[in-house]
Design goal:
heterodimer; A: 582 residues; alpha/beta; Rossmann fold; Ubiquitin-like (UB roll); 5 domains; five-stranded mixed sheet; B: 157 residues; Arc Repressor Mutant, subunit A; Glutaredoxin; four-stranded mixed sheet; 11% strand; elongated
Chain lengths: 582, 157
Amino acid sequence: MKNKILICVGTSGLSAGANEVADNFLSELKKHKLSDKYKIIKTGDKGLFVDVIVEIIDSKETTYINVKPDDVSKIFNSHIVKNELYKKRLANENYKKFFKDQKRIVLKNCGEIDPEKIDSYLERDGYKALQKTFKMSRAKVLNEVTDSGLKGRGGGGFSTGVKWGFGKKANSDTKYIICNADEGDPGAFMDRSILESDPHAVLEGMIIAGYTIGANNGYIYCRAEYPLAIKRLNIAIDQAKERGFLGNNILGTDFSFNLKIKAGAGAFVCGEETALIASIEGRRGRPKSRPPFPANQGLWEYPTIINNVETLANIRHIIINGSKWFASKGTENSSGTKVFALAGKIKNTGLVEVPMGTTIKELVFGPGGGLSNKRKKFKAVQLGGPSGGCLPESLIDTPIDFESINKTGAIMGSGGMIVMDESTCMVDMAKYFLKFTVAESCGKCVPCRVGLKRMLETLETITDGKGEQEHIEFLKEMSPTINETSLCGLGQTAPNPVLTTLKYFPEEYEEHITDKKCRSKVCESLLEFEVIPEKCTKCGLCFKACPTDALEWKKGEVAYINKDKCIKCKACFEACNFDAII
Amino acid sequence: MAEIIKKTKSLITKHGKERSALIPLLQNVQTEYGYVPKESIDLIAEELSIFPVEVYGVLTFYSQFHLNPPGKHTIRVCQGTACHVMGGKVILDNLSDKLGIEDGETTEDELFSLERVACLGTCGIAPVVAIDEKFYGNVKLNEIDDILNKYRETNEK
């Protein structure tokens, strides 16, 4: 068998020069006449951002990380020509631990297969689940999915089996399956990675869903901001058609299923089911009141089932391994695994898949590797994006399953998890998310359109240093009103970031209002930086870090900050190793 | 002008006249010109048998669409959560200062347009700035001049 060189070519890999790395390996192979000994496979993202990742599968099975295009000839000469490991770029213990602490089901193929070649997918049991499905009755497939306990991974957490049941029951000759790939939560990128690294898994899930409910047509609604995902989906659809997994009379059966891709046009609210349908129909993406639910009256008024990318990618594993196998993972009410996008002030940013019920602490300090800056103290994790909330250190032992997270006031959401240390201001975070929801509100209903705007103005007053005690009362009063009276999930959940920060970090609001201080040094109006001459070691690090001319320093002299030129970017503050800038 | 009409007509033939073709059609027009010209809007409305105001409605609802020609290079600054926590706002403010334009505007020399985006989905390399299709990760304030100059120099050549 040929040896393999796996190179991660995802969006982040590409930004680090993955294509050049692959080209360089190719020319080295040619130069040394080894093209028949090694095969180069371009994979999708593996899930950890240490690009470019290169795995050489031969007798030594070695992973190299942070590989630059210039490193290739050195790695090649050492590893392949001289048969010695190239130590400088070897994957470290941290890298190994990141993967060891996970339970990868949905991400199993990510970084292992070539997403642009269907054979690569077929080698790893691709479309086996579909073949098995055709030997089962529709009712049996539905039972399997229902019994597995799989819940929607896009944020809602509604039982996938029950949803499919509605679709199957709906009486109509025309039905639709839609894959919701409009991943909009800032800080979540699992759907992009799955689509880029393993697109066939999503297609297979959709075809099985179509067979089960009796739908012959499907749409994938994908964000236009993900050009690589759209490109690879198109390739996957063409290849699946060629091999008879997609199209008319699939695998010789009487079942036909056709798929189209619709690119979103940049509207967060289109992640909401009825807004998404409006967008596919060519209209403004505004939600409708429910009922009727899309399962009965959806796309062009026909029964429509909408599932998220990660949900669909789970289906093939449930069919192959059975519902009992799936239900045995995770907790009683939240079965299976969940993919989290770890980011922020954390050592290992990337995609982590763990069984439901894993605690926040296990996730952050296990695969996450702890905080990125060990000098700073852990403050909070933000779960669930703009609909979620910030949880403090005291809740770090909370198990991550739908029920436990809901109890805290945050939500599981699509699995974005942003870690924050003491340099993140909680009032600013609340303001940040409100700014987002205000900008993305479709404007249809008043509580969301006007109410959120008033809340944002109030928060801006507080961070500008003009806050009064009554502002807190106002926020507390507005939040439940907006939650109860908004039409769709966007408005209903938008106050969550404010409510959770008020609940868990009241002292920070208090400080902004009473002391006019921002302890995290984020809120510009409350900041003024200066150098403490006694502590300054005259090293000049701050001078080098300053992007404007605000910092004045000469060798051997104490630094000075010109406040008129200072843009309060914190670069000097972060650069100083001696706490001489406050 | 005649060229725009001709091109738009061929795109309408390609996408069809169904209402559901409207967004892909507008996206395709924008790929051609970098924005959706007024002439295209009127023609599309007529051909799809809808009012021009409905086309405007769709164009102004979705943040992807532009009604004015963009600069030669589009700078997109990510304002996602991870980027925000890692200082994405300061990067945006700084770029805005350096270029002398706000979000959605184009520089006088028509070289750069500036856009804030909700999230580029590359949180692992936050803060992120994307210029056209190229992604710059872990951007630091003092790297911005170098990045911009690269594009300025190529333009002069």
